[in-house]
Design brief:
By secondary structure, the chain is α/β, with parallel strands linked by helices. The protein is built from ten helices and five strands. The chain starts with a strand and ends in a 9-residue tail after the last helix. This is Response regulator.
Amino acid sequence: MKALIVDDDVVSRIALMDLLSVYGIFDLVEAEDGAAAWDLLAAGLHPVIVFCDVRMPRMSGIALLERMKGDPHLAQVPFVLVSSASDRDTVLQAVTLGAVGYILKPLHAAEARAHLEKIFRITLDKLAEDPATTMRRLNIGPDRLAAYLAAFAEQLLAGRVDIVALLDAGEGADARLRIDSVHTGCMTLGLWHVASQLDNARRGLPDARTVALVLGEVSESVRRQLTRLRAGMPDEGVLA
């Protein structure tokens, strides 16, 4: 899952990236201002969340938010404003436009983490179901869910090469059946974001490169879900 960090102040940008990297949730992509960020989005980048400064040359954070909200492919991407306290009116404007939260500059680690964790509670369950909810839905315990996720990871490891080979050989129908099986696994395990990506990838004539990239994202989502699960398990229940 990619997170886009947009800030013309390189020190602030690096500080936020360092703070986010501690969580191990996202692949971080950076842009030096709103215009550079929009170029990345227009070229096909589809982040799961955007962290964006307010005041920047060429395109402000508010202008970028407005553009994203006007694009049906990007309108639902969570947008977090990174602002100074003097931007209070701008923050209120951004929230009205649909921003999910804000982080104050200069960054103070403890305060920023508190805001981030609140934002993650709002956004992450839309990307992948909380493991506790998955366990209740499937009526299983943590060890069993860990086994499901591990088995799915093995399926992906073996199946990714086969699916790409089928697409390269022009066997789109057979490849689509394999992709459908992966999609079912994603839905069963509550991996909503990558399931949606698979939906898009399998439409029409699936492209081998695109499908390979999405399957890589599925594998990463499984790994992250295992990490989330293990973080909530007692020591004796953690699988090696």
